[in-house]
C-alpha cells in the first residue's frame, strides 16, 4: 500500500505533538515536509533528520505526491492555509477554530463542502478515550434518552493577557470545545443559548475586553439541556468532567489524576490532583484524533469532525457572546440570520 | 430546668418523624399534646401512651404551659396554624413552605417579625451533617470566595399526580429546597433567575399543569452563579449533590450510598445506589433541625432558618416560574414589586 | 403480646448504649431493672426515672417476670453473671468474650448448651449493616467460592496501659473480633493459625507483657485463607475494612467516613477520615444486634451468635498467642487438645 | 554526544516492547542489531527496515561499537546470554529472573559484581509511575516508619499449562515481582518467609506440579511485615495494588481502570474494570525502566535494579517454596546456607 503523504504547517506546541505522534505511531504515513515561518532549519534538521523543511508552506503543499495538509498555525492564518490546501486539492486537518469570523468560517466550510476535499477539525477532546467511550455508551442507549448534560471545564490558570487579546474571547477560544462536546454527546443541534460571564480571576482580562468565568445554558432542538461552567483558573488544576443524565441512568466522566495513590494521615484522606497541562491531559486524544484522520483518508471514509461541526460551534459561541451582551437568551436562528 | 413544652400538629409522615425524634432524643422536652384531624385516637394511645391527643389543634395550643407549636399539617393549613400560634403567643416550627401564596407568606412573615415570637422553617437539608459541614467550611474560607454553586437535586420517582396538582408546582414544592440551599451556601441574596422547565417523565404532569424537569440559573447580588438541575425521576435513586467552586478550591458533597461495599465481577466494579427515600436520606437532618430549634428556644438564641428565609425561597420560586413562562431572565426586584 | 422483660447488668459505656437503644427503639421491651456496683443511684434516677436500680445483680435477675439478662460488666465477672442467669433460668446476652480462660469458656458454653437457655454473644460487628450485607451477598454466591479473606483492623489509638494489663492480650481483646468476622464471612472453621506480633506503638505495651501490632494467617478446613493485620494505633483513625476474593468476583467493605465531602485545593483532593470512635463507627451494629437478640427471644428462634461462636474465637486467639510464642503455625486441634 | 549502541536479543512480546519503545522515544540510542533464533528475517526487515538482524546473538554482541545488550530471551537462556555479554565486556539489561537456579544466579551475580559491567534486571513494576511515586513518598517519610506492607497481585487468567511447566513455579515466575516490590518499598532485607499455596483455579496446575493461589508473609530484618496474596485468576482482571501502613499514615496504590466513566442505573453504580493485560497495565513501566537504564549508562550512574536485587528475590522465592513444602516458616539464612 502506498504511504499516505502529509505536510505539516506550524511547528508550535500542537504542531510538534502531531509530528511526533505521526513519526512514532504511524509507519504507514510519510511526512513529506514541515513548514514554519520562524523555526530554525538547523535545529529542525538536528531534531528530525531528513524530513524536508521549508519556511514556505506553499512550496510543500504544492508537491504532487502530498495527500493532505495539517494546519497547526495560529488561528489568524487558518483561512489562508485552508484556501491554499483547497487550491492544490489536498485534504485538510485544521486545528480549531476554522476562523474567528463567523462569515469567513461559513464561506470556507461551504467551499470545502463543494470541493470533494475532506476537512477534519481538531476538536481533540472528542477523541479522549473516556469521552469517546461515554459518547458510544450513550449512542448505544446505556442511559436512555438524554435529558441534561453538565460540562465542567475549568482551566488550570490564566493564559498570558497578550494571548487573550487575540483569542477571540472566552467563548470562541475555550468554551468552543465544550460547545462541540455538548453537540457530540447529544448528537443534536442547539436552538437557544443563555450565557452569563464575568471577570473574577484577573481584572486585566476585563481590561482586555474579555471575561474569565462563564455559565452557559444550551437548549437543544428537542428541549433537552446542557449547562457548561467555565473558569480560566481552577486552583486545583485542569478540571474536565461530564455528567449526562438520561431516563435510564446517569453517566459521569471523571478527571484523570496524576496518580492512583491515596494517602491517609492525621488530616484526612488525600489524592493527587487532576493532570493539569492540556498536553498531558489530552495526550491520548491527540494521538487518537490523528489515527481517525489517517484512517478516514486511507479508507476513504467520512471524517469524524467536519467543517460543519466547526461552524456550528462558532455559531453557538457567537450566540453565547451576544447573550452575555444582551443579557437575554439568544436563539441560534438569530445568529444564523446574519450569514 | 423547666422542660420545654411542645405541641405537635399533624401526624403525617413528617409529624411522626419529629414526634419520634423528640421522644427518643430530647428528654428535656415535654410533648404537651398532639393534634390531628384524622388520626385514630385509640391507635395513638396504643402507640404513644399517655401523651394528650386531640382532634382540635386550638385546644392544645391554648394551654398556658405550652412554649411552642410544631406545624406539620398540609401546606394549605400552615397560615391558619401560624396565626393560631401567634394568637396564643407560642413559638413556631413550621414545615416549608409558609404558604403557596407569596402575599400570604409576606404577610405572615411580617406579622411574626413584629411579634417577638420565634418561627423556624423546616428547611431540613440545611441540617444534613454533610451540607452543614460544607457550609461551615465555606464560611471559614476553606475554598476562598465562592464563584459557582452547582446543585443536583433529582427525586427517585414521581409523586402521585393528585399530590402534584396541589403542590404549588415543581419550583414551589421541590426546587424550593434547592433555592434555600443556594442562599444558605452562598450567604448572599439572589438578584435574578433564569429557568427552563419541561415535561419529560410523564405527560400526566403536563396535564396537571406542572413540569417535571428543570434547569435554573441564579445570579447573586455580587454576580456569582448557582445552577440547579432537577428531575422528578432519577432511575438510580435520590440524587442530592453539591459542587461549590471558589478561587481557592472546590468542595463537593457526594451522595450517601446504601452501603460501603464494592463488588468486582466480570462486568465491572459495582457500588450500591444512593439512599432513595427522603426519610432515610435525611434522617439525621430531621433530628438535627429539631435539636437546633429546641436549643434556640432553650437558650433564647436566634433561629437558624427564619420566616424571612422562607419568604426569599418563595420569591425565587415565583421568579423561576415566571421565567419559564416568559422565556427570559426574571429579576427578584420584579417579583418583589408585587408585594 | 406480653412485653419482653430484660435486666441489664453493668452501666459502663456498652451497658449505656444498650440501655438507651432499648429505651428508644424497642417499645415491646420492658427494662425490669439495671444493676451496677458503682453507679450512683440518684444519678440513675435522674437519668432514667422509674427504672428499678440496684447495686446487686442477683436481686434483679431473681425476679420471676424477667426473661433475659444483658451482661455488660467487665470480662472478669462474665462467668459469674452467666452462672447467675443460668441458675435462674434466664436467657443471656453477654458482651464478648465469655471469659479469658479457655477452660472456663468451654465449661460455660457446655453448660449453656445443655440448659435450654439461649445465650448470645456481643460480636457486634457482625451486625454492622455493611458487614451484614457483605456476608449475605457472599452466602448468596455473589462472588462464588471464597478463596482469600483480608481483614484490616486497626484501632485509632492505644487504650490505657492499665486496661491492656487486664485485657487478656491483643489477640483475646482486639483481634478476637476479627477472628469471629473471618468465621462469619467464611462460614467455615479454622484449622491452623500462624501469627506474628510485636511492640511498635509504645514500649509500655511490651512492659505490660503484650504486643500492639500483629499479622495473623488463618487456614480454614478447606485450605482457604484469611489474613488479618492489626495495630493498636492507626494515626488516621479507626480502620475497619474487609476484602473477600472469590472465584467469581471480589467484595470490599470500605470505611465509613465522617462525611461525604471532598475538597480540592492546591495540595490535592481531600476527604474526611474514617469515623474514629468505636461507638460512632458501630452505632448501627449495637442497635442491630439488640434487635436480633430481642427478635430471637420473642419468636423463639436460634440466636445469631452462640456461645460456641465465642468459644471458637477464644480457641483461635489462643492458637495465635501460642504461634507468636512458638514462632510456628499452631493447629486448632493442638489447642483443643487441652480442653 | 556519541549515541549509545544497543543490541537486543529475543523478539518475543517483551523484546518487541523494548525495541519499539527505544525506536520511538530514545533518539540518543542506536539499535546496532537484533537477534532472534526464530523470527523471520524478511518480516523483520519489513517491520524495522535497515536495523541489522541476525539469528546469532554472538555475532551482534561481539561488535566493538556495542555498549550494552538487552536480554529478552526465555529464562532458560539468560545465563548463557549474560556470560556472552560479560565475555565481550558489554553492559546488560536482563529480563527477570536471572536464572531459575539459585546457584547459577548467585554465580552470575558474583561474576557481574567483579567485572565492572553494569547489569540491570527487568523488575519493571518498580518503574510504574504510581509505584515509583509511592516508593519516593515513603522514602521521604510521608507515612513515617513502615510497619506493614500488603501486596495484592492477582493475574487475570491462567497462562498455558505448557508455560507453567517451565516457569519455575508460581513463586519464581509470578510472586517474584511482589518479593522485589516488597524489598523496594521497604528498602530492607527479608529475614523469614512463611507461605501457603494451593491449587484452586485449575487442577491441571497441580498435575503440572505447581500451585495457582498463595498467601505469603515476609518478616523483615527489623520485624516489620509484608503480606502478599496471589492468584493466577482474578475474574475481574489484573489486580495490582499496594497498601503500606506506617506510624504516620497509610498509603494505597489503586488499580488503573480502563476508563474514568461511572454509570448509575437501576442496579447500582458501575465503573470499568482494571486494565487486564500486563502490557497495557505496565506500558509506562516498560518505557520508564528503559529510560532509567539508558540514563544510568549514559551518565555512568548506578543501576536502579542490580543483579543482587535479582538474587535476593530468587532467594525469597526459594524460601517461599520450601515453606509451602515444609509447612513452616523458613529463614532466609537457611536458604543462603546452601549457596
Automatic annotation (TrEMBL), chains A, B, C, D:
Main enzyme class: oxidoreductase
Q: Where is the Gfo/Idh/MocA-like oxidoreductase N-terminal domain?
A: 6-122
Q: Which UniProt keywords apply?
A: Oxidoreductase
Which segment of the chain is annotated as a signal peptide?
none
Superkingdom of source:
Bacteria
EC no.? 1.1.1.18
Any GO molecular function: inositol 2-dehydrogenase (NAD+) activity
Q: Which residues form the GFO/IDH/MocA-like oxidoreductase domain?
A: 131-251
Indicate the family of this protein.
Belongs to the Gfo/Idh/MocA family.
The protein's name: Inositol 2-dehydrogenase
Amino acid at each position: 500500500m502506498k504511504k499516505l503523504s502529509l505536510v505539516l504547517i506550524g511547528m508550535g506546541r500542537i504542531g510538534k505533538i502531531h509530528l511526533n505522534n505521526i513519526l512514532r505511531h504511524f509507519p504507514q504515513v510519510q511526512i513529506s515536509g514541515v513548514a514554519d515561518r520562524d523555526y530554525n532549519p538547523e535545529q529542525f534538521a538536528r531534531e528530525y533528520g531528513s524530513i524536508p523543511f521549508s519556511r514556505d508552506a506553499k512550496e510543500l503543499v504544492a508537491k504532487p505526491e502530498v495527500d493532505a495538509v495539517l494546519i497547526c498555525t495560529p488561528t489568524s492564518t487558518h483561512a489562508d492555509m485552508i484556501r491554499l490546501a483547497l487550491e492544490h486539492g489536498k485534504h485538510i486537518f485544521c486545528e480549531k477554530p476554522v476562523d474567528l469570523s463567523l462569515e469567513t468560517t461559513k464561506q470556507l466550510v461551504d467551499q470545502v463542502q463543494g470541493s470533494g476535499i475532506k476537512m477534519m477539525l481538531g476538536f481533540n477532546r472528542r477523541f479522549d478515550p473516556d469521552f469517546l467511550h461515554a459518547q458510544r455508551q450513550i449512542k448505544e442507549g446505556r442511559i436512555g434518552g438524554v435529558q441534561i448534560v453538565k460540562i465542567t471545564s475549568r482551566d488550570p490558570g490564566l493564559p498570558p493577557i497578550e494571548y487573550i487579546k487575540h483569542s477571540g474571547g472566552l467563548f470562541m477560544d475555550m468554551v468552543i470545545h465544550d460547545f462541540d462536546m455538548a453537540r457530540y454527546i447529544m448528537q443534536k443541534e442547539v436552538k437557544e443559548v443563555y450565557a452569563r460571564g464575568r471577570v473574577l480571576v484577573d481584572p486585566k482580562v476585563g481590561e482586555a475586553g474579555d471575561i474569565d468565568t462563564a455559565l452557559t445554558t444550551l437548549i437543544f432542538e428537542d428541549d433537552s439541556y446542557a449547562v457548561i461552567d467555565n473558569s480560566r483558573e481552577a486552583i486545583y488544576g485542569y478540571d474536565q468532567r461530564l455528567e449526562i443524565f438520561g431516563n435510564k441512568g446517569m453517566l459521569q466522566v471523571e478527571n484523570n489524576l496524576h496518580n492512583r495513590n491515596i494517602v491517609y494521615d492525621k488530616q484526612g484522606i488525600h489524592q493527587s490532583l487532576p493532570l493539569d497541562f492540556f498536553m498531558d491531559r489530552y495526550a491520548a486524544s491527540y494521538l487518537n484524533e490523528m489515527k481517525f484522520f489517517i484512517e478516514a483518508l486511507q479508507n476513504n471514509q467520512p471524517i469524524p469532525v467536519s467543517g460543519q461541526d466547526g461552524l456550528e460551534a462558532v455559531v453557538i459561541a457567537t450566540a453565547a457572546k451576544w447573550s452575555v451582551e444582551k443579557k437575554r437568551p439568544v436563539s441560534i436562528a438569530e445568529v444564523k440570520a446574519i450569514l
